[in-house]
């Protein structure tokens, strides 16, 4: 009975989110025969551990709306179709296929991306093409600058800056270390985390050592050995994709994990399940969401998360990754924009969402800011890795022990030109 109620909540939330009446005085476009969504992720290449789970989240959002008749468009309901493209984790391929989606496939909106560098390249394309774009990965902080952000780009997952700021703030407040080493990669995802962490360190009057691995590094042994010699209390790790899995494994294999506290700044199910339980046990992390919030204080959020996880698991046979959840939320927001605007005109979609910026999610109520990234009730969750003896199954990876709330999780609008 409880399961049935939870499943009804998921469908009801989708219906409510997409049933907003046409704003007074707005001119609706003629209802299309079908809404066409372009879905493009890194399904191969360096992003391939994460891209497929994002695609599943996006497809589930579309399937939910089609299950209740389609997208509200005036007095009609319009079915939603989608076209899938693989950006291959290559900016040049992504740009070419993005243009194909707009010019050849004639999609009404595009959702996607797994790597920040590709999102940045496509954001520039949005300025040239007539399309609304909803990246659902964590993107580069620079993209949110008022001069950089395309007027119809909405980035639901925010910037890597926040992962660094939130992780460093938690460490300082709760672990009270005397010596911190930040180890990250020499690409945007890692550098933005360092910018966020550095701001947190400055805010609280803390100093930290910074160590960087070149792009393309797969063997981190020499860096981790150096960190052992530095004798830190906490090591922050800021890697992504296959790099994340490799560095987590190697902190265990080199013995670093046994000598200091590891804080992996931005965890996913994909990364956690890609390493031995011994390598994840006791590792602290931020996660944008986790499928099992058991024990978390907000019972409503726990139930909403469980309902989504159960539905996703029934369809795909595995629990949703945080990146599945954010792709699901981003796809719903793209379609909500179309429904409110009653148009695929990107200017009208932007106005519709900015006039109606608040939406519901399994992370709680969220509101789009002027820079078109949202503040959630729970921006991210604090988790700690479980060992083999604690796990109920292969996906029972972490325990949620808290959450990061408040707008300071995002950089001030003033520094972004707003």
For the record, the CATH class of the largest domain is Alpha Beta
On the 0 to 100 scale, the average pLDDT is 93
Q: How much of the polypeptide forms β-strand, as a percent range?
A: 15-25%
Shape: globular
Total number of helices: 13
Question: SS-based structural class?
Answer: alpha/beta
| Terminal-residue CA separation | 48 Å
What is the name of the CATH topology of the largest domain? Rossmann fold
Q: What is the percent of helical residues?
A: 40-55%
Largest sheet: 7 strands, mixed
CATH superfamily of the largest domain: Response regulator
- The helix/strand series, from N terminus to C terminus, equals HEHEEEHEHEHEHEHEHEHHEHHHEEEEE
Q: Pick out the low-confidence regions.
A: 1-12, 14-25
Number of strands: 16
CATH architecture descriptor of the largest domain:
3-Layer(aba) Sandwich
**Using only CA atoms, what is the Rg?**
21 Å
Number of domains: 2
Strand order of the largest sheet: 8-7-9-10-11-15-16
Q: Could you characterize what this model shows?
A:
The protein has 418 residues and is α/β, with parallel strands linked by helices. It has 2 domains: 2-157 and 296-376, Response regulator (Rossmann fold); 161-287 and 379-416, Response regulator (Rossmann fold), CATH 3.40.50. It is 40% helix and 18% strand. The chain has 13 helices and 16 strands. It has helices spanning 2-17, 51-67, 91-103, 116-126, 160-175, 188-204, 221-230, 242-253, 269-273, 277-280, 299-316, 322-341, 346-355; strands at 35-41, 71-73, 76-78, 80-86, 109-112, 132-135, 180-185, 209-213, 234-237, 261-266, 284-287, 358-359, 366-368, 374-376, 380-385, 398-404. Strands 8-7-9-10-11-15-16 form a 7-stranded mixed beta sheet, with helices on both faces. A 4-stranded parallel beta sheet has the order 4-1-5-6, sandwiched between helices. A 3-stranded antiparallel beta sheet has the order 12-13-14, with no helix packed on it. Helix 2 (51-67) packs across helix 12 (322-341) and helix 5 (160-175) runs parallel beside helix 6 (188-204). The longest helix has 20 residues, at 322-341. It is globular, with a radius of gyration of 21 Å.
């Amino acid at each position: 009975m409880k399961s049935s109620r939870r499943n009804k909540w998921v469908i009801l939330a989708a219906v409510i989110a997409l049933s907003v009446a046409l704003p007074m005085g707005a001119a609706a476009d003629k209802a299309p025969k079908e809404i066409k969504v372009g879905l493009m992720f890194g399904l191969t290449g360096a992003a391939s551990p994460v891209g497929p789970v994002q695609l599943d989240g996006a497809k589930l959002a579309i399937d939910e709306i089609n299950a209740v008749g389609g997208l509200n468009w005036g007095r009609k309901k319009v079915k939603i179709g989608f076209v899938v493209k693989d950006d291959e984790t290559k900016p040049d391929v992504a740009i070419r296929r993005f243009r194909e989606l707009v010019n050849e496939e004639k999609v009404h909106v595009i959702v996607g991306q797994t790597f920040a560098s590709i999102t940045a390249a496509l954001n520039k394309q949005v300025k040239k093409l007539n399309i609304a774009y909803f990246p659902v990965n964590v993107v580069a902080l620079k993209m949110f600058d008022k001069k950089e952000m395309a007027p119809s780009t909405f980035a639901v997952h925010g910037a890597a800056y926040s992962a660094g700021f939130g992780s460093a703030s938690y460490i300082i407040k709760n672990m009270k270390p005397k010596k911190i080493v930040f180890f990250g990669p020499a690409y945007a995802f890692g550098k933005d985390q360092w910018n966020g962490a550095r701001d947190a360190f400055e805010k609280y009057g803390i100093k930290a050592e910074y160590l960087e691995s070149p792009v393309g590094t797969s063997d981190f042994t020499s860096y981790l050995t150096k960190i052992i010699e530095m004798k830190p209390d906490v090591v922050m790790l800021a890697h992504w994709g296959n790099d994340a899995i490799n560095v987590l494994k190697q902190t265990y294999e080199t013995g670093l994990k046994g000598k200091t506290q590891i804080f992996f700044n931005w965890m996913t199910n994909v990364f956690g399940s890609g390493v031995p339980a011994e390598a994840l046990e006791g590792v602290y992390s931020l996660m944008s969401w986790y499928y099992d919030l058991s024990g978390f204080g907000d019972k409503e959020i726990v139930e909403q998360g469980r309902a989504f996880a159960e539905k996703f698991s029934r369809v795909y046979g595995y629990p949703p990754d945080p990146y599945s959840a954010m792709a699901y939320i981003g796809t719903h927001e793209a379609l909500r924009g179309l429904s409110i605007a009653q148009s695929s005109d990107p200017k009208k979609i932007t106005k519709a969402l900015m006039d109606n910026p608040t939406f519901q999610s399994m992370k709680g109520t969220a509101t789009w800011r002027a820079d078109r990234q949202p503040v959630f009730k729970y921006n991210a969750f604090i988790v700690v890795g479980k060992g083999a003896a604690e796990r109920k199954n292969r996906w029972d990876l972490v325990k949620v022990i808290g959450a990061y709330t408040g707008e300071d999780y995002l950089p001030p609008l003033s520094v972004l030109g707003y």
